[in-house]
């Protein structure tokens, strides 16, 4: 039987309509299924905030502050003469306060402002523009973050302690006003650019693949060479080699060293930016490297001088901590012991042999311990990160030799940038207000002449 044309058209229309509805329904269903997948992908790409990581980073930030005051202040304060102890305490406190304010005004932006320059972060976050309690700072691992305010505080403590380290090189013979002016200029033109170059994803040294987990270049080499330049430009202490200049309170120094060791766990383990396995690796390395350095310093001192001193042990604490700082998250605990011991021996040689021969007056051995220890640590990081030596290994196809070359380049850039920059800035301060107090003020002591008070009363 022949089917009428009108019926054929009706059936065709019905079938096409059914197919269209079916296809539309299928597409709608697929879209509904795809939407959660897209949302999940977006959620995975956006860092999520973990309360445990946030709590750890808040604690780490406070631990680094603990390193500055009271830790570094007591360590340095005990090493100077009684008439200058308050001046050192005041310098540490004043520097910390000034740098924290500068960090909020423009320091954070200069270092981590989101700019694409290899040398500075730009003006994008001046006065913390755009930062809110909801802002998230992504960590070095994918998908995890911490509140940006916490990251700002953590990095702020690094910026505050670094210039405070410098003052030990010319302690007992610099004006308080000169110290503060120099620090303002130094963090602006030296520290913030170095921090950006090493730690920001767009930074010059970061782009080379240099390893600096917690600040071997940014903090210790940076401060060490600036301290040496300052010591040379300010000149020697009056009466050096003639007057008694022994530390006035070794208990202060030992307490300060112990506080530094405790606070350094925030410094090193906190630099993982998470409470994770890398943080635990940095933690154990902070134990073992320091222990190895103490033993090495005390042993070589006992061999050379027939006695093992408390000052030597305290110096070993700092040498080991400095050396392991750039390596804490990438080397193994046994490698950390050897790195700490090697750095301690070299630092002892610089302090006990090289400095007296060259005749410069690095009062509290800032260059001899922080500068040299930082160099040993930075280069040693390139060696001990190797898996054959217990480290976590290098990125991609990088070899030990290639990594060591990159580490040396990072050290050289830091030495030149900080050394030349510090020289210029010290000269500017000297012209503007003068670096050194009068001979009379220095003889009386900076506690009375600069601050109008004395630490001790008979």
UniProtKB/TrEMBL annotation:
InterPro entries attached to this UniProt entry: Ammonium/urea_transptr, Ammonium_transpt, Ammonium_transpt_CS, NH4_transpt_AmtB-like_dom, RhesusRHD
- Keywords noted in UniProt: Ammonia transport, Cell membrane, Membrane, Signal, Transmembrane, Transmembrane helix, Transport
Pfam families reported in the protein's UniProt record:
Ammonium_transp (PF00909)
Describe its membrane topology: Multi-pass membrane protein
Recorded GO cellular component terms are: plasma membrane
Q: Which residues cross the membrane?
A: 55-76, 88-108, 149-171, 178-199, 205-234, 246-267, 279-300, 307-328, 334-354, 366-384, 404-426
Show the GO MF annotations: ammonium channel activity
Its family remark reads: Belongs to the ammonia transporter channel (TC 1.A.11.2) family.
Q: Where in the cell is it found?
A: Cell membrane
State the source organism's domain of life. Answer: Bacteria
Q: Where is the signal peptide?
A: 1-31
Question: Which ranges carry the Ammonium transporter AmtB-like domain?
Answer: 55-456
Keyword Cell membrane among record annotations: yes
| Protein known as | Ammonium transporter
């Amino acid at each position: 039987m022949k089917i009428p044309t009108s019926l054929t058209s009706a059936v065709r229309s019905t079938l096409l309509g059914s197919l269209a509805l079916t296809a539309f329904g299928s597409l709608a269903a697929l879209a509904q299924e795809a939407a959660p997948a897209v949302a999940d992908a977006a959620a995975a790409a956006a860092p999520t905030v973990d309360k445990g990581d946030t709590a750890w980073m808040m604690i780490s930030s406070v631990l680094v502050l603990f390193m500055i005051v009271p830790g570094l202040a007591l360590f340095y304060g005990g090493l100077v003469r009684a008439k200058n102890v308050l001046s050192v305490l005041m310098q540490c406190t004043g520097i910390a306060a000034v740098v924290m304010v500068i960090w909020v005004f423009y320091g954070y932006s200069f270092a981590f402002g989101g700019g694409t320059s290899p040398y500075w972060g730009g003006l994008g976050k001046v006065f913390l523009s755009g930062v809110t309690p909801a802002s998230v700072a992504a960590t070095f691992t994918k998908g995890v973050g911490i509140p940006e305010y916490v990251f700002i505080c953590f990095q702020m403590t690094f910026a505050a302690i670094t210039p405070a380290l410098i003052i030990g090189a010319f302690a007992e013979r610099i004006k308080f006003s000169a110290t503060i002016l120099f620090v303002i200029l130094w963090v602006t033109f030296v520290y913030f650019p170095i921090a950006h170059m090493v730690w920001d994803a767009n930074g010059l040294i970061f782009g080379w693949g240099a390893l600096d987990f917690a600040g071997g270049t940014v903090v210790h080499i940076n401060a060490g060479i600036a301290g040496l330049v300052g010591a040379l430009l300010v000149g020697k202490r009056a009466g050096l080699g003639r007057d008694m200049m022994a530390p006035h309170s070794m208990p202060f120094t030992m307490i300060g060293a112990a506080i530094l060791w405790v606070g350094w766990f925030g410094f090193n383990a906190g630099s993982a930016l998470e409470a994770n396995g890398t943080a635990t690796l940095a933690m154990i390395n902070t134990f073992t490297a320091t222990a190895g350095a103490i033993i090495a310093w005390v042993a070589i001192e006992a061999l050379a001088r027939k006695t093992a001193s408390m000052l030597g042990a305290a110096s070993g604490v700092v040498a080991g901590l400095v050396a392991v700082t750039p390596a804490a998250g990438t080397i193994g605990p046994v490698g950390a012991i050897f790195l700490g011991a090697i750095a301690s021996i070299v630092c002892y040689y610089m302090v006990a042999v090289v400095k007296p021969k060259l005749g410069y007056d690095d009062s509290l051995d800032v260059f001899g311990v922080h500068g040299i220890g930082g160099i040993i640590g930075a280069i040693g990081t390139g060696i001990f990160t190797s898996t054959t030596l217990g480290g976590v290994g290098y990125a991609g196809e990088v070899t030990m030799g290639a990594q060591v070359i990159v580490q040396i380049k990072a050290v050289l850039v830091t030495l030149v940038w900080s050394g030349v920059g510090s020289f210029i800035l010290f000269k500017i301060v000297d012209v503007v207000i003068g670096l050194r107090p009068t001979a009379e003020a220095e003889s009386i002591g900076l506690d009375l002449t600069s601050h109008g008070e004395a630490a001790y009363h008979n």
